[in-house]
Amino acid sequence: MKSSNCTAIVIAHRLTTIRNADRIAFVADGRVKELGSHEELMARNGHYCRLVNAQKQNARTEDTRSQEQRKSTKLIEEGEEPGLENGEKTHEQEEDAFSLKRARKMAADDMKQLLVGAFGALLTGATIPVWGVLFAFTLEQLFTPVAYCEGAQCHSEWLSIADGLQHNSFFLALYWVLIAIATIIGNVLLFRGFGLASERLNKRVRDESFIALVRQEVGFFDQRSVASLTSELQEDATRIQTFSNEPIRSAALAVSSFLTGVVLSFVFMWPLALLGLASLPLLLGAAALKVSEATGEDEDDSEETEDTQCPGGIVVETLLNIRTVASLALEQQRFEAYKLAVVQTEPISFTNSTLKGIRSGITGLVEQWITALQLWFGGWLLFHYPTTFNFIDFLIANFAFLFSLVGLGAAWQNISDRAATEASAGRIFYLLDRQSAIDPLSEEGRKLD
Predict the structure, then answer these.
(1) Cα–Cα distance measured from residue 428 to residue 233, given in angstroms and rounded to the nearest whole number
(2) Which of 100, 220, 300, 348 is the residue whose CA sits 20 to 30 A from 121?
(3) What's the Cα-to-Cα distance from 234 to each of 197, 260, 425, rounded to whole Å?
C-alpha cells in the first residue's frame, strides 16, 4: 500500500486494511455503488461509511465479549458453570423430541430385510425345543435297560438289542444333522436380515445427523463439546435400531421357541406341561434378577454420575481439551476432580455385597427347586399312570419345555436399556429438527446475476 512503484488491487472485508488506498470501490449486488478515497467515502455518509461504523461497533462488542469470557473463566475456576440454564432447556427439548412412531418409521425402507430376519428368527426359535426332543431320545438310547438273561438264547437277544440301538443311533445322528442345518440356515437369515437392516438404518441416521450438524451455527457448539457431539453421533445412531429391529427379532424368537416347546410338552405329558406353566413366573422372576445383576441394574442409581463426571470421562475430557486446560492453568483442578470421582466410584460396601450374594443365592435356589419339583412330579406320574405315560414321554415333555426357556433367554439377551435408547433417539430427532440460525447449506436468499 505504501509503495508508489506498483499498482495493487486488494479485496478485503476488514476496512483497516484498505484505509490508505488511493481509490476504494464499494461493491454490492454485483455493481460498484461507491468509488473514492477513504475520506471522500466517509464524507458521503453512504454504504462505506455505515460499514466502517458497523465494524467499529463490532470491535467494541468483541471487547465486551472478551471481558465476559474472562469472567466466565473465573466462574469455572470457582466451581460455577455458566450457561447451565440453557443446557437444561436443551435437554428438555431433546426429551420432547422423542417419538416412538418416528423411530419405527425410519426402518420402513428396510422392511424386506426385516422380514428375512424375522423368518430366520422363527426358524431358529423353533429348532431350540427340538434340540430337547432329540436330547430326550439320545438319553433313552444311552440308558436302554437290558433284562437279565441266562442261556444260549441270550446272545441272539443281545445282538437284537444292539442292532436296534445302532439303527436308532443312525437315525438320531441324521436328525441331529438336519437340526444343525436348520439352525445354521435360521441364524444366517436372522443375522443377515437384521444386521443388514441395522447397518442401513445406522448409515442413514449418521448421514442425516452429520448434515444437520454442519448446518448449525457456531453458537450451537458452545452448548456441547465437539467430543460429546461426535461420541453421540456414533452411539445414538446405533441405538435407533432398538425400536425397530430388536422388538421384531426378540418377539419372533421368543414366540417361536416358547410355543414350540409348550406344544410338544402338552402333546407328550400334559400334566408336566401345566406344572411348567405354573412355575414359569418364578423362573422368569429368577431370570430377571440374574439379568439385572449381570447388567448392574440392581445397583443403587442415586449416586450415579454422568459419563463426563466419572474418572474415565474426566480423563478423556481433559486430554481432548488439554490446550484449554493448560492455557487456563486448570491442571490442579482437573486432578482434584479426578481424585474425587475415584473416591465416589469405589467398590460397593459390605452390606450391598452381602445383599447381592443373597439375591444370587435365591435365584439359584428357585431354579434348582423348580427343576427338582418337575423331576419328582414326572416320576410320580410314571409310577401312578404307567399305561398313560412312559419314560420317553417324560423326557420329551421335560426337555422340550426347558429348552424353550433357553430360547426365551436367547431372545431377550443383550436387550438395550430403554431409557438410554429413548434419550439417544431424542437427541437425534432434536438435532434433525433444529433450525439453524445461520444455515450454510441453505439455498434461500438473493443470488447474484
Answers:
(1) 8
(2) 100
(3) 17, 39, 12
Q: For residue 35, what are the β-bridge partners?
A: 25
Provide the domain limits for residue 30.
15-74
- pLDDT for 431 beyond 70: yes
**Arithmetic mean of pLDDT, 410-415:** 66
Backbone angles phi, psi at 225, to 5 degrees: -80, 155
Is residue 96 over pLDDT 50?
yes
319 and 197 in a single domain? The answer is no
Please state the separation of Cα 18 from the chain's center in Å: 56
Closest CA to 398 of 254, 271, 229, 235: 271
- For the chain, the C-alpha Rg in angstroms (whole number) is 36
Q: Within this chain, do residues 429 and 357 fall inside the same structural domain, yes or no?
A: yes
Please tell me the distance from the alpha carbon of residue 101 to that of residue 244, in angstroms, as a whole number: 10
Element (H, E) at 31: strand 31-36
What CATH number does the domain containing 255 carry? 1.20.1560.10
pLDDT 10s digits, 157-179: 788 888 888 888 998 999 999 99
β-bridge partners, 86: none
Q: Where are the alpha helices (DSSP H) in 106-219?
A: 111-142, 153-215
Spatial contact of 129 and 260, defined as CB atoms under 8 Å apart: yes
Which of the 8 DSSP states describes residue 110? Answer: G
Domain end: 286, 320, 347, which one? 347
Instruction: Please tell me the predicted confidence (pLDDT) of residue 213.
Output: 83
Q: What integer pLDDT is reported at residue 274 of this predicted model?
A: 92
Contact 424, 431 (CB under 8 A): no
CA distances from 298 to 210, 276, 307, 367 (A): 36, 27, 19, 19
Reading the block at residue 157, the C-alpha cell is 437277544
In this prediction, residues 259-282 reach a mean pLDDT of 90
54-82: string of b/e by CB count within 10 Å (b at 16+)?
A: eeeeeeeeeeeeeeeeeeeeeeeeeeeee
- How far out from the chain centre does Cα 13 lie? 47
Using left for φ > 0, alpha for ψ between -120 and 50, and beta otherwise, residue 335 falls in alpha
Q: Do 334 and 309 contact (CB within 8 A), yes or no?
A: no
